[in-house]
Amino acid sequence: MRIRTEPMACIASGACRRTAPALFGADADGVVTVLQPQPAPDQEALAQDAAAACPAAAIHVEDEA
Ligand code: SF4
C-alpha cells in the first residue's frame, strides 16, 4: 500500500493526524504531510480510516503494482 495526498486540496482540518498520528503530520500551515508513505501492514486499516475521514478527499491509499 502507498499513501498519496493532494496538498492543494487539503483544507487543514487535521482529521487525518487525529485518526492516524503515526502516518500523517502537518506543515506550518496545517497542510497534510505524510510520515509513512508505505504503511506497515498493521497500519493499513488506519490509513484507510484516515482517507475516509478526510473532508476534502485529499488522501488516497493505493495498492502498489
Ligand atoms: S484530513 Fe484531509 S483536509 Fe484534513 S488535514 Fe488531513 S488531508 Fe488535510
Summarize this structure as a short list of keywords or feature phrases:
65 residues; Alpha-Beta Plaits; binds iron/sulfur cluster
Write a structural description.
The protein has two helices and four strands. The chain has 65 residues and is α+β, with helices and mostly antiparallel strands. It has one domain (2-62): Alpha-Beta Plaits. The strands form two sheets. It has a two-stranded antiparallel sheet with strand order 1-4. The longest helix is centred in the C-terminal third of the chain and has 10 residues, at 44-53. It is globular. It binds iron/sulfur cluster. Residues 5, 10-16, 32, 53-56, 58-59 line the site of iron/sulfur cluster. Residues 5, 10-16, 32, 53-56, 58-59 line the site of iron/sulfur cluster (SF4).
- Strand numbers in spatial order across the main sheet: 1-4
Quote the beta fraction: 15-25%
Mean pLDDT: 97
The radius of gyration is: 10 Å
Task: Please report the number of helical segments.
Answer: 2
Work out the number of β strands.
4
Oligomer: single chain
- N-to-C order of helices and strands: EHEEHE
Q: Strand count, sense and closure of the main sheet?
A: 2 strands, antiparallel
Helix content: 10-25%
Bound molecules: iron/sulfur cluster
Tell me the name of the CATH class: Alpha Beta
CATH topology: Alpha-Beta Plaits
The name of the CATH architecture is: 2-Layer Sandwich
Counted up, domains total: 1
